[in-house]
Structures are given as C-alpha cells and as structure tokens.
C-alpha cells in the first residue's frame, strides 16, 4: 500500500517535470503563439476597376488582369515583452497576396505592414478570398 503511494507520487512528479520541460522548450523556441488573429481578405480580378473600404478586413476591391492593389495594416506591440510577428495567407487569395514575414517588434513598438495583390499573367478572372493569419510569438 505504501509502495503504491510512493510509485503514484513518483509518476506524478515525473509527469509534472516533463510538462514543465515541454513548456520551457516551447517558450524558448517560440512554439507557442501568444495570440493568433485571422483577418478576411478578398480581391476580384475582372475587366472593371473598383475599390472597397473596410476597417475589419483586407479587401482589395476589383483589379484588372495584370493589375495590382495595395493595403497596409498597422501593428502596435502593446504586450509587456518583445514579440515576433509571423504572417501567412490561406485560401484562393494566397497565390495573389504578397507580404513579408517574420518581424521582431520591441515593447511599445509599431510597424506598418504593406500588403499587395497582383494578378499576373495566367491568373484567372473572378473572385478570390481567404484569410491572412497573424501569429504573435513571444520573443
């Protein structure tokens, strides 16, 4: 009975130690995102030009084949620690959006991030949409 308790306690301590080690590694390597935001994005490639104004999405409006459109997002680091901002694009629009990735932003720092879409040769006319994913990692 006493040896069962000791064994159970030893297993519990071992599990706790493994969890602490895993969290330490994830923090060290930046595996855990502090926050993730998904922002809707869209563009229409057509024979007409138009624009959309939207404060909660990256809408690029309508562009001509061979044309482009640009938007910017301002990121402000309000965390109490430096962060790394990672950006990816998902959906039909992914092949049209051009954006950088992997910015390091100090405490209180800000960054204007330019996004552009380009309908190059061979891009089909029509509506494309998806999401821009912002991953904020503790640095």
Helix content: 10-25%
If you consult CATH, what is the topology of the largest domain? Answer: Immunoglobulin-like
Structural class by SSE content: alpha+beta
Number of extended strands: 8
The CATH architecture of the largest domain is: Sandwich
Q: If you average the pLDDT, what whole number results?
A: 85
End-to-end separation in angstroms reads 47 Å
The global form is elongated
Rg of Cα set:
22 Å
Walk me through what this model shows:
The protein has one helix at 2-29; strands at residues 33-45, 58-63, 68-76, 83-91, 97-98, 103-105, 110-118, 126-138. The protein has 139 residues and is of the alpha+beta class. The chain folds into two domains: 1-31; 33-138, Immunoglobulin-like (Sandwich). The longest helix is centred in the first third of the chain and has 28 residues, at 2-29. The protein starts with a helix and ends with a strand.
Give a topology summary.
Layout (H helix, E strand, L loop, with lengths): L1 H28 L3 E13 L12 E6 L4 E9 L6 E9 L5 E2 L4 E3 L4 E9 L7 E13 L1
Parallel strand pairs: 1-2
Antiparallel strand pairs: 1-8, 3-7, 4-6, 4-8, 5-7
What descriptors fit this protein?
139 residues, alpha+beta, Immunoglobulin-like, 2 domains, five-stranded mixed beta sheet, three-stranded antiparallel beta sheet, 1 helix, elongated
């Amino acid at each position: 009975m006493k040896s069962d308790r000791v064994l159970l306690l030893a297993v519990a301590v071992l599990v706790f130690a493994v969890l602490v080690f895993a969290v330490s590694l994830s923090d060290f390597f930046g595996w855990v995102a502090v926050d993730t935001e998904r922002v809707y994005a869209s563009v229409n490639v057509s024979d007409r030009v138009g624009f959309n104004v939207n404060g909660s999405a990256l809408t690029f409006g309508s562009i001509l084949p061979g044309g482009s459109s640009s938007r910017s997002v301002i990121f402000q680091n309000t965390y109490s620690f430096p962060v790394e901002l990672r950006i990816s694009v998902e959906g039909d629009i992914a092949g049209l959006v051009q954006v950088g990735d992997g910015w390091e932003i100090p405490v209180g720092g800000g960054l204007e991030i330019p996004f552009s879409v380009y309908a190059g040769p061979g891009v089909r006319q029509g509506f494309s949409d998806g999401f821009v994913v912002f991953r904020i990692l503790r640095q």
